[in-house]
Amino acid sequence: MLTTRPRGTNDILPGEVEKWHFLEHQIRGICREYGYSEIRTPIFEHTELFLRGVGDTTDIVEKEMYTFMDRGNRSITLRPENTASVVRAYLEENLYAGPQPVKLFYCGPMFRYDRPQAGRFRQFHQFGVEAFGSHDPALDAEVMAMAMDFYGRLGLRNLKLLVNSVGCPECRPGLRQKLQDFFRSKLEKLCHNCRERFNKNPLRILDCKENKCAEAGEGAPVILDCLCQDCREHFEEVKRHLNLLDIPFIVDRCLVRGLDYYTHTAFEITAEDIGAQSSIGGGGRYNGLVEICGGPPVPGIGFALGIERILLAMERQGIKLPGLARPEVFVVTAGDQAADAAFRMLFQLRSGGISADKDYLGRSLKAQMKYAGKTGVRYAVIIGEEEMKKGLVVVRDMRTGAQEAVAAGQAVQYIQDHKQQV
């Protein structure tokens, strides 16, 4: 059926889109305060970028990417996440040659062939930040603080910040060996994907959402027990800086982010009352990703927050968001001769910064006033043939019912002055 949208996608209609505008305004405000500049990357990239950047053992690459061949026989993928794309832009546009750190943010749609559920869709939207060029643990803490600050400004409560260290190439081999030793006798209990991950990347087994894999992984070795000295010291400094900001956090020894590029710090933020999938955002450090994508060894850290999941959490917590945007003024005509004057008045109001509309269905005066009341406008500007002869219009306050005859040329200024007094 051509009038049905694809499964896992949504139309964002009037009344809902205003909520998105509100969030986007908050996003731009906090990014300005934290020193992040906006970047906009293509919605599709060469598939190789995600195979190398995200990791070929992740669920995203193995099962969830929208990949197709274009007319030039090139493999193209709709972006399933945006960090790899931002890294590509950082290299291609030579941003690494300028002052560091480079702090960027984005807000836009991502695409994954996932099972749709509450707050989770196949086309979804993320707000994310990426900071390149510094390995300072204070920057890790700043990124997490920024995410929590953003949620706080929205009024969200009962949030949990889960943090962990996932190590680095120096200490990962030790964990890899311990995990393989642990799971070797449990291979038959694992799902097909995890049996394949056993040799490629056994750490991914800990991120599997299959119940049987979670049960098989109980008591598995954790990365915190295998950290090298540098990773251990870095993680301690991250926690110390979070404590300096009085930001509560929980060390989750089993936290493993679903992307292969993470090193050192990993974190996730969860909210109550949004269903089984309680995560509303997360991120971490990815010191090797720029190099994996063909650049110099530049450290990086960032987060991605799901817009739909934020809106769901706000709705479940009863946080009021802006509703349908309505005009402030409705121009009402009484008599055919007033139509042209009403049309001019409509555009005079708009030129004065006042949102306005008029009747386009030929309604009667009574029907126009009734419609104006239903739409919730603050003022009605009534133009009749008698008022036109005197060069007047009638401005009615739709909330109080009070009305006043005003010179037609002064109507815009009159409404502007009264708006300021409210």
Written account of the structure:
The chain has 422 residues and is of the alpha+beta class. The protein folds into 2 domains: 245 residues, BirA Bifunctional Protein, domain 2, CATH 3.30.930.10; 93 residues, Anticodon-binding domain (Rossmann fold). The protein is 37% helix and 21% strand. It contains 15 helices and 16 strands. The strands form 3 sheets. It has an 8-stranded mixed β-sheet. Helix 1 runs antiparallel to helix 5 and helix 5 runs parallel beside helix 9. The protein is elongated, with a radius of gyration of 28 Å. 37% of the residues are buried. The mean pLDDT is 91.
Question: What brief labels describe this structure?
Answer:
8-stranded mixed sheet; BirA Bifunctional Protein, domain 2; 21% strand; 422 residues; 37% helix; elongated; alpha+beta; 2 domains; Rossmann fold; 16 strands; 5-stranded mixed sheet
Summarize the structure.
The protein has 422 residues and is an alpha+beta fold. It has helices spanning 17-34, 47-53, 59-64, 83-92, 137-154, 172-183, 192-200, 211-216, 229-244, 289-292, 307-316, 339-351, 365-375, 385-389, 411-421, and strands at residues 37-38, 44-46, 67-69, 75-78, 102-111, 123-132, 159-165, 250-251, 263-271, 279-285, 300-306, 329-334, 356-358, 379-384, 392-397, 403-407.
